[in-house]
Amino acid sequence: MRHLGLLSAGLFGALILASCAKEIDKDAVERALQDVNVIDESNLNSVVLSSSDPNEAVTYFQRSVQQSPDRIDLNRGLAGSLIRAKRYTEAAAAWQRVVDLPEASSDDHVALADALIRNNDWDKAREVLDTVPPTHETFKRYRLEAMIADSEQDWKAADSFYETAVGLTTKPAGVFNNWGYSKLTRGDYTGAERLFGEALRQDPNLFTAKNNLVLSRGAQRNYSLPVITMTQTERAKLLHTMALSAVKQGDVSTGEGLLREAIDTHPQHFDAAARALEALENG
Questions:
Q1: CATH of range 137-218; options 3.40.190.10, 1.10.357.10, 1.25.40.10, 3.40.50.12780
Q2: How far is residue 26's CA from residue 31's CA, in Å, rounded to a whole number?
Q3: Which residues contact 125 (CB under 8 A, 6 or more apart)?
Q4: Which pLDDT score is estimated for 125?
Q5: Rounded Cα distance, 169 and 13, in Å
Q6: Cβ-based burial of 15 (10 A; exposed 0-12, middle 13-18, buried ≥19)
Q7: What would the mean pLDDT of 190-194 be, rounded to a whole number?
Q8: E strand or H helix that includes residue 152
Q9: Out of 3.40.50.720, 3.40.50.280, 1.25.40.10, 3.40.50.2000, which CATH number does the structure's domain 43-117 have?
Q10: What is the per-residue pLDDT across 68-79, written as a single tens digit (0 to 9) for each?
Q11: Percent of the residues in the chain that have a pLDDT greater than 70, as a whole number
């Protein structure tokens, strides 16, 4: 805002001088006014993208892009708001329009790959990431590389990319959780349990990691809840997850007991657990 004030003051002074000389350069004034508008609009775009309702932001940026189709900042705003609105097919098309613009950066290509993955177009995402120079070493790039390696069951590459991604962020809980889930799908339950535990050390409130930790323990027929921070509702949900894991392992009586404990623990009626218990009791 200080820069905006200085620009406005400078513009005002220029107009005063021009007025005194009776030689106003209309083109120069118009250019200066456009500069002020761009500053104001950039601030507005940032506010709309970060704090508005996602679909309202989509409408705002769609209208803006129609008026200025070659403005890369507006196209980025549209693509980003479509991601927030979970309209992934449209988002992928929007990011494609961004990367087709002359000013497109490597970050834009990574964002396109992200949108393609969200849209379940893994092959195209791989093609897009392959066009990004290896010198573009960012957290988002390596996180996506790890996910694609997982989808291709290239476990060695996945582990390498996850490890690199962890080192490129100050908030690695989500990466540890994804890495743990990768280990879980491979059948490396002890490795998965370790990584989920690391995720919770980084973010004790990450419920997805709590649930996955219970799954990894259940897969090893360890049906005791881990010693982690949890609310009463979370405890009930984790007992429900553990119960289903026990049933899957063939330990039906253990599963029934865990379901009853989940129902008793939940502060309200736990419909999912009640239905599961009823199904077991009815054979």
A1: 1.25.40.10
A2: 9
A3: 113, 114, 116, 117, 144, 148
A4: 97
A5: 46
A6: middle
A7: 97
A8: none
A9: 1.25.40.10
A10: 999 999 999 999
A11: 82
